[in-house]
Design a protein that fits this description.
Elements lengths: L18 H10 L6 H11 L13 H10 L7 E7 L5 E6 L5 E8 L26 E6 L3 E3 L14 E4 L2 H13 L5 E8 L9 H11 L12 E5 L3 H11 L4 E5 L5 H7 L2 H4 L2 H10 L8 E7 L7 H10 L5 E7 L13 H13 L4 E3 L33
Parallel strand pairs: 4-7, 7-8, 8-9, 9-10, 10-11, 11-12
Antiparallel strand pairs: 1-2, 2-3, 3-4, 5-6
The protein binds S-adenosyl-L-homocysteine and iron/sulfur cluster (SF4).
Length: 390
């Protein structure tokens, strides 16, 4: 039997119930217990949200579900934007009139080997006659973000609210429904709008739902949580999921002083404290932590920065994901030249630090990292951009 985490907060909406919670609910309605699993499978495995279409349930139960389910709290897709490179951005509408975004990124085999193709140490991919193109979905966890990193569009309007577990899982259900024929949603990265670990309770329930064997059944190592470095919640995630969930950490600077200039969270949890937490994360054998490093021209992209980064990561099982900065409207920060990116990479390689450059995806529809933003919301005025060198 799948173990429910002991400290999971109670479900708020229908989409958030686990099979055993459905069974308890349905038993209270006088239904047999096994119907709980059936309803859960309809919602999560089959992605059917309309009770009228749940054909193996008696009509009376379908009618009751239609009345009692608060499925309207689940997220809706209000429009879909296709990028020339195959990336699709889903604009999401919430029940209370908020908007958010999720992105579907197909990864044809020639382009794999980076973050989106999760490591597969067990090599247990099914052999398929014509293998489906794997798709990674990048999902949001908050409406806006409170963290205020200076290079990112998501936090410009501040935090409006947390997203519920149902809204988080709803993005994956919708993502699967919008996945093209011949494609298959394989990886989910919590790298859209918001800081996942700032919304820990909802994210923990969403992880439990997404990886539940009777539901979407994503493998934990194919789900990546990216964090700006909330140390207590990194520890909690490690404890609650035994280190199985892939962890990505937005480092972005090789020294404590530099990091504080661009990421306010670093003043609360300074770099040495974060590195300590990463070294303690209960990583399974042969797995590595992803270190995200956004390259910003004149700030953190010099050869000396690369050497300091290699030094900082010494002994930590990690792979560095270099992200040349995606431009954000109204923000003067720029990416380095491709020659500088190559030179930075070469220094890491010489020092034995595994790394890859994340190719720009969905730039033309503002779906790239750090470009997901709240539309039509007043933006905060930025106070302090980092000191740039020539
Ligand atoms: N809030 C989480 C996850 C979402 S952001 C976090 O910060 O980790 C996903 C990644 O994109 C993070 O590494 C983030 O720092 C990075 N990012 C943000 N703005 C960016 C930009 N303008 N260009 C490139 N990467 C950016
Ligand atoms: Fe929030 Fe992540 Fe953007 Fe920082 S980089 S503002 S933590 S979404």
């Amino acid at each position: 039997m799948y173990k429910v985490l002991p400290d999971l907060a109670p479900p708020q909406t229908a989409l958030e119930r686990l099979p055993e919670e459905w069974s308890a609910q349905l038993e209270a309605w006088g239904e047999p217990k096994y119907r709980g699993k059936q309803v859960f499978e309809w919602l999560h495995k089959k992605g059917v949200l309309d009770p009228a279409a749940m054909t193996n349930l008696p009509k009376s139960l379908r009618e009751r579900l239609a009345q009692d389910l608060v499925i309207d709290a689940a997220i809706q897709v209000s429009s879909v934007h296709d990028s020339g490179d195959g990336t699709k951005k889903l604009l999401l509408a919430t029940h209370d009139g908020r908007t958010s975004e999720a992105v579907l990124i197909p990864m044809p085999s020639a382009e794999r080997g980076d973050l989106y193709a999760a490591e597969d140490p067990s090599g247990d991919d099914e052999a398929e006659a014509a293998p489906a193109v794997p798709v990674t979905e990048c999902i949001s966890t908050q409406i806006g973000c409170a963290m205020g990193c200076v290079f990112c569009a998501s936090g410009l309007a501040g935090l409006k609210r947390h997203m519920s577990a149902g809204e988080i899982v709803g993005q994956v259900i919708q993502g699967r429904a919008h996945t093209a024929a011949g494609h298959r949603l394989r990886n989910v990265v919590f790298m859209g709008m918001g800081e996942p670990l700032h919304n820990y309770a909802a994210v923990a329930r969403a992880l439990t739902l997404l990886t539940h064997p009777e539901g979407i059944a994503l493998s934990k190592r194919r789900v990546t949580i990216s964090t700006s470095g909330l140390v207590p919640e990194i520890e909690r995630l490690g404890r609650d999921f035994g280190g199985e969930v892939q962890l990505a950490v937005s480092l972005h600077a090789p020294t404590d002083a530099q990091r504080s200039e661009i990421m306010p969270i670093n003043k609360k949890h300074p770099l040495p404290e974060l590195m300590e937490a990463l070294r303690r994360y209960p990583l399974p054998k042969r797995r590595r932590i992803t270190i995200e490093y956004t390259l910003i021209r004149g700030f953190n992209a010099s050869l000396s920065d690369a050497k300091k980064l290699a030094e900082l990561l010494r002994g930590l099982p990690s792979k560095v994901n270099l992200i040349p900065l995606n431009r954000v409207e109204g923000n003067p920060l720029e990416p380095p030249s491709w020659d500088d990116v190559d030179a930075f990479q070469a220094v890491l390689r010489e020092r034995g630090v595994a790394n890859f450059v994340r190719r720009r995806k969905g730039d033309d529809i503002a779906a790239a990292c750090g470009q997901l933003a709240l539309r039509n919301e007043p933006k905060r005025i930025r106070v302090a951009l980092p000191q740039l060198r020539d």
